[in-house]
Amino acid sequence: YLHESDGGFDRFYVQLASGTALIRVFGVNPANVTVLDISSTTASSSSAWQCWMVSVDMADTAKRFIYLGDTSDLGTVTTYNNVALDFTATDWAVGAKVTGGNKFDGGLTEMLFWAGVYTDFSVQANRRLFFSASGKPVDPNVAGGAIATLGAPDVYFHLNDGETANNFVANNDGGDGGAF
Questions:
Q1: 46-54 LR contacts (CB < 8 Å, sep 24+)
Q2: How do residues 90-112 score in pLDDT, each as one tens digit?
Q3: Which residues does residue 144 pair with via DSSP β-bridges, in sequence order?
Q4: Which of 33, 105, 115, 170 gives 87 a disulfide partner, CB atoms 3.0 to 4.6 angstroms apart?
């Protein structure tokens, strides 16, 4: 659940679609025209840990992925245009809209976001950067992990076992995801 806004409109977000719990990915160009609107086929579950991975290359319609673990889960493609997404807004939020509305009622951990980095999630080795073959989370900081492979993410929040969401603040600025 990640939102980018300039205060007037949402420019980019990944969230649960209202009333369905489907993963929805939405983005606009600098003119505020919708250029990306895709969603999953499976509803997110609040009863078990899940690894959702999303990657899009706006220049190639064959390069758009939503994965739930090892299962391709791209469902509805409402809009997908060969136009750059606008990531220039200064306000970002995790777990709610920038205004504080639409709060996510669930747990988030290991949220990583790379603007402008495409990862082909149809390749199993790329999915293994985020979760193991046994379905467990993979530390993105290990040698050969997601950060070593893809570079420092623009956003990186993590929680260790037993930590609460207020530790996102303490965990966000290790040189691997910016200051929030």
A1: 46/105, 46/106, 46/107, 49/137, 51/130, 51/131, 51/135, 51/137, 52/23, 53/119, 53/121, 53/127, 53/130, 54/14, 54/23, 54/25
A2: 777 777 777 777 777 666 667 88
A3: none
A4: 115
Whats the size of the chain, residue-wise?
Answer: 180
- SS3 for 170? helix
Classify 178 in phi/psi space as left (phi over 0), alpha (psi -120 to 50) or beta. left
CB count, 10 Å around CB of 49?
11
Residue 131 CB: number of other CB atoms within 10 A?
19
Q: Which amino acid is at 91?
A: D
pLDDT in tens, 133-156: 988 888 888 888 898 899 988 888
